[in-house]
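Backbones bend. We report:
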Amino acid sequence: MSVQITTAFVEQYKGNVEHLVQQKGSRLREAVSVETVVGKNAFFEQVGSTAAQQRTSRHSKHWSFGW
């Protein structure tokens, strides 16, 4: 067996990753609001500034934005 990584393996890996990303969805989806924009311009309310929170766990499932 060859130890070379072929283009076919790279393309297969790329396809698998894209497929998993589409299935899983975004981890930040609940933290943003999704709005449909009709026309050339859209205006959004701005949220005030916030400070970063120190990460206390490597695989924490809860996001903390300090709001």
About this structure: The chain has a mean pLDDT of 78.
